[in-house]
Design brief:
Length: 345
């Protein structure tokens, strides 16, 4: 046994002197020290020896193993250093592409929308995602017990779970970016032009078209003599800018308690050019936004005199817009973190 070990040691060290590159070194390490390696096998066999032999052979085998490990490390260092010195550099070869991340498709379109709205004189602002019932509903002409509350499947926060003394605060995850309307009016007064991109939350069963979190972009313009014509003009600019072609915008009556009149805004289908196709459900039009003229009660809640000022508001489904622009058929892909999806943008 002892001789066998010493012979093996000689054999390994001779082979080691012939090793020229890291790969050969790795192969050699596996051949002898790997799970099925020759030296490993011998080490396993030690268990069957007499106690006396176990001691002597065991120690020897372990010494050889350590020595070998040490040597392999040494040789690896030598090879790597040499490799560096001798490496040929061909400066004419194209560089290796460095993989860097990029912006999420939602962020890309959000940035484009912000630029477009900036150019129309809108200021881009933020608002809280965890919002008071007041700003999410009441200031928007939706009092408690108003049936319109049923339209939005709200996540209510259990007041008992709050760390504050005031257990009376009603907090919700905002169901729409309209929650920032009254906040902006209070803070900046009239005239006002703001755009509010952001996440909104609804307690919905998820499927390809619905998720519990999605993105919207709110627009609000208040000034003297604002009309629906201004609203349509702004939306026309925005949609044409995002889809990079001159699209048509049409409005239909719609109901939202915070606007009067309330409108649903459609855009001519960019895929079929109004002829009708599966994307537009064969209607030639795509539903893009809810909108309308700001209700006098909302202006009042924001401290603005409805006798002097009027305004329009719109809420674009940002997630839906991106889905339409790129033909994405499942909203859940946005938050999937799947690189096969993300790397396409
Ligand atoms: N907040 C509405 C929604 O989420 C959209 C909307 C915004 C409608 C502004 C009218 C005016 O459905």
């Amino acid at each position: 046994m002892k001789n066998k070990l010493l012979q093996l040691k000689d054999k390994i060290f001779t082979e080691l002197t012939n090793v020229k590159d890291v790969q050969a070194l790795v192969d050699l390490e596996i051949k002898y020290l790997g799970r099925k390696g020759e030296l490993t096998q011998i080490l396993r066999g030690i268990a069957n020896l007499s106690d006396e032999d176990k001691k002597i052979i065991g120690r020897l085998a372990n010494e050889i193993k350590e020595e070998l490990r040490e040597k392999i490390r040494e040789i690896k260092d030598i090879i790597l250093e040499k490799g560096d010195e001798n490496r040929d550099v061909d400066v004419t070869l194209p560089g290796e592409k460095i993989k860097i991340g990029h912006l999420h498709p939602l962020t890309q379109i959000q940035n484009e929308l912000e630029d477009l709205l900036h150019s129309l004189g809108f200021m881009v602002i933020d608002g809280p995602e965890l919002e008071s019932d007041y700003y999410c509903f009441e200031a928007l002409n939706i009092p408690p017990h108003h049936p319109a509350r049923d339209i939005q499947d709200t996540f209510y926060i259990d007041p008992a779970s709050l760390k504050t003394e005031n257990k009376k605060i009603d907090l919700v995850m905002r169901t729409h970016t309209s929650s920032v309307q009254a906040r902006a009016m209070e803070k900046y007064g009239a005239p006002l032009r703001v755009a509010v991109p952001g996440r909104v939350f609804r307690s919905e069963a998820t499927d390809a078209c619905h998720d519990v979190m999605f993105y919207q972009l709110e627009g609000l313009m208040i000034d003297k003599n604002i009309s629906i014509a201004n609203l349509i003009a702004v939306l026309h600019q925005i949609f044409s800018g995002i889809f990079k072609k001159n699209v048509k915008v049409r409005v239909r009556p719609g109901y939202f308690p915070f606007v009067e009149p309330g409108l649903e805004v459609d855009m001519s289908c960019t895929i079929c050019g109004e002829k009708g196709c599966p994307s537009c459900k064969h209607s030639g039009w795509l539903e893009m936004a809810g909108a309308g003229m700001v209700h006098p009660n909302v202006l009042r809640a924001g401290g603005i005199d409805p006798e002097k000022y009027s305004g329009f508001a719109f809420g674009i489904g940002l997630s839906r817009l991106v889905m339409m622009k790129y033909g994405i058929d499942d909203i859940r892909l946005f938050t999937s973190g799947d690189l096969r999806f993300l790397e396409q943008f």
